[in-house]
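Task: sequence design from structure.
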């Protein structure tokens, strides 16, 4: 069973880069400049920002629906980021060197499985989660800061 990791669409975030700092704050977002690498993992490009790159830190609803697991969390988006399109079975470099928390959800957005893995073990962990046919989507979080990293589906 293979998987596919999905990046977010930059078009959702592009208008936010034009807002004032006050308008961003009203939408629970802040402007940032990367001062270290790694440290600012972009959810669109699935790459760590380079030092000096401009980003937004914003709250993102990553699990919607009528479920007790509905959730939002912080994400980074690089200004002008190009959306990544990882191939089936491919783990983006931004996830390979971090500790990750995986949460497998069914079609009703109820959590069925959860696991913590080093990034080097992500492919095996995702394949094992998708062996359970009831798991429809796996949400990947950076375990240290707990931020939403992305989602995976069957490839």
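Answer:
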């Amino acid at each position: 069973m293979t998987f596919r990791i999905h990046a977010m669409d930059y078009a959702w975030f592009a208008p936010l880069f034009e807002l004032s700092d006050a308008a961003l704050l009203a939408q629970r977002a802040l402007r940032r400049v990367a001062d270290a690498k790694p440290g600012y993992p972009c959810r669109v490009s699935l790459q760590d920002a380079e030092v000096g790159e401009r980003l937004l830190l914003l709250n993102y609803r990553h699990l919607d629906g009528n479920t007790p697991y509905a959730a939002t969390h912080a994400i980074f988006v690089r200004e002008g980021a190009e959306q990544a399109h990882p191939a089936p079975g491919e783990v983006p470099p931004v996830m390979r060197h971090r500790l990750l928390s995986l949460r497998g959800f069914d079609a009703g957005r109820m959590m069925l499985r959860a696991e913590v893995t080093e990034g080097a073990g992500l492919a095996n962990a995702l394949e094992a989660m998708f062996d359970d046919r009831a798991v429809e989507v796996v949400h990947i979080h950076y375990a240290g800061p707990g931020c939403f990293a992305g989602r995976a589906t069957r490839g």
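The first helix runs from residue 21 to 26.
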